Amino acid sequence: MTKQVARGAVREDIYEYVFEKYNGVPEYPWMRLPLYAVFRRKDNRKWYAIIMNVPKNRLGLGSDEKTDIMCVKCGEALRCVLLSQKGFLPAYHLNRENWITVLLDGSADRETVFRLLDESYEAAKRKSKKPSGGVPTSWLVPANPKYYDVQKAFAESDTILWKQSSSVIAGDTVYLYLTAPYSCVMYKCEAVETDIPYEYDDGNVRMSRVMKIRRLHTYEEGMFGFAELKEHGIISVRGPRSVPYGLRFKLEKESGNGA
To answer: How big is the CA angle at 253 (ends 217 and 150), to the nearest 5 degrees?
Structure first.
């Protein structure tokens, strides 16, 4: 157990508060990181708090000693105020415009921490973007093999992480269109989880959130090439776009489902 510090919030305080107020329990999605815990809303599975145990030097605190931290969603005005106070730092491995890091070493006031948890919980609320009736939407999403070997990724696992599009939500169908030299639709996938915080920037691709997609079907290379897409009015695939009914019918039929 973490040593309690008067008036300061520590990991166990967060667990107790979230359980009592939201009937929430921590999830541990990374087997190799047993001290990394995630809290999600039950209605949409979106993250509103992440607790990690990291070396202080990664936070700019100049020590190899590890410490517990919590990242929560935080608005710009409040974030600017908190960053001038003890116990608060820029978001660690998350979008610094939307998240903030709270030190769980007792230096951050409990009332403030609990208030941040409540506001982050509300910020994670999202109205459904699905059409009336809840019908899942189908999307055509480009995949550039120059930057990411999606074929290798699917050879290793049927479920992978993919850059999040603000339009895609859990339950939607995602057709991956591999750009040159393939220039064809190669995979039919389902978005099983969306809006996962994930800070990444390699100079070519930048991501602040990702979605988890599961492969449902692999199409024969060239079967749904660019010529086929043009017949359905698609002249480019530069970003996520909805799939015309005629093309979707063919894709669904080939994968063994009706449109």
So the answer is: 25
pLDDT value at residue 259? 43
β-sheet bridge partners, residue 161: 212
What is the dihedral angle through the alpha carbons of 192, 71, 29, 139, rounded to the nearest 10 degrees?
Answer: 10
| Distance separating alpha carbons of residues 173 and 183, to the nearest angstrom | 19
If we measure between CA atoms, which residue out of 14, 10, 34, 9 comes closest to residue 25?
A: 14
Average pLDDT score over residue span 15-23: 92
Backbone angles phi, psi at 35, to 5 degrees: -100, 10
Confidence of residue 6 (pLDDT cuts 50, 70, 90): very low
CA nearest neighbour of 224 among 196, 169, 257, 182: 182
Structure tokens at 3: 């040593």
Q: Could you count the other beta carbons within 10 Å of the beta carbon of residue 211?
A: 24
Q: How many helices (H) and strands (E) are present in the chain, helices listed first?
A: 6, 11
Q: Which two tokens stand for residue 103?
A: 């030190």
| Whether the predicted model's global pTM rises above the 0.90 cut | no
